[in-house]
Amino acid sequence: MLGAIDHGFFEPIHHPDRAWFLIGTRVTIVIGSFFMILATAREFFSQRVGLLIVGLGGLAGILVIFSILVSDNFLWILGYYAAALVLILVLSLAHLRAWPGARWMVAGVIVALGASVLAAIEFEGFLGLGVYGTYHVILLPSVVFLYLGGRAMRKTAAV
Questions:
Q1: pTM
Q2: Quick check: is 69 in a domain?
Q3: Structural domains of the chain, count
Q4: How many CA atoms lie less than 13 Å away from 51 in the CB half-sphere?
Q5: Which residue range forms the structural domain that includes residue 30?
Q6: CA 98/CA 90 separation, integer angstroms
Q7: How many CA atoms lie within 13 Å of 26's alpha carbon, on the beta-carbon side?
């Protein structure tokens, strides 16, 4: 939603503080992606393996946040976010029959990854929305699917 606000309101008027809003939005995406990694590790792995995955995910997130502060390359964010989604996808597919949220997660991840690929190849899609407007519109159903899948996660876990 922050990206949609940025592309819809701040970017068109060339707001003088847009750079700070953009950095904040991108850092928020990285933090959200880290929490997807954390929730996935808690759901599917033992405490030891989960802590390793969370540690590696946290370290990678810190590196991506550093890259946000020194460059203007959205592909770093897409890569980190895609890694979190692929982790969720692989584990959801592996537990497709046993885990009630798996089908929702698979659907959400496929839509999100599809939207990310379209943004990476700069697909303009919907007339008048541009690359990132199209990305955000395609991403909306993914949020609903991931939410429904997340509702099936355990309330307590190992990590």
A1: 0.82
A2: yes
A3: 1
A4: 4
A5: 2-150
A6: 14
A7: 26
